[in-house]
Design brief:
It is built from four helices and five strands, in the order βαβααβαββ. It is about 30% helix and about 40% strand. It is α+β, with helices and mostly antiparallel strands. α3 runs antiparallel to α4. It is elongated and about 55 Å long. β4 and β5 form a beta hairpin.
């Protein structure tokens, strides 16, 4: 197979991670869990993973996803902005991540709207 020379910047997307959390400021929101839909995009240098074809050289997106689940599922948050920030912080704690974007949807937060979302991003 012919080698490709150049940048091996990988983009990983975790799509539609559906979790339940207490999210909001109204009494009903504080006492009842609601669905939140989490989407994460991140980039990292995958050169070593491409060259050696070993899991130990790749960014482990399963670990990141488990950390997000553990942090969000069943926990309490007043604002989508705060929840988005905390998930983004979890992703950026992984040193290999160079850029990340987190978008979190709260389905049916507004009448006549499918959802409301907040999107935050960070880079090194």
């Amino acid at each position: 197979m012919t080698g490709v020379i150049g940048n091996h910047q990988a983009r990983i997307r975790i799509k539609d991670l559906l979790l339940r959390a207490y999210i909001g400021i109204k009494d009903e929101e504080i006492s009842n869990q609601q669905d939140v839909l989490i989407n994460v995009s991140l980039t990292y240098d995958a050169t070593e993973a491409v060259n050696c074809n070993e899991i130990s050289a790749a960014l482990n997106y399963r670990t990141i996803t488990k950390q997000i689940i553990h942090h969000v599922d069943g926990n309490r948050f007043a604002l989508l902005e705060r929840l988005s920030h905390e998930v983004l912080t979890i992703v950026m704690e992984h040193e290999a991540v160079q850029w990340a974007q987190v978008e979190i949807d709260k389905p049916h937060a507004l009448r006549y709207a499918e959802s409301v979302s907040v999107c935050l991003e960070a880079h090194r």
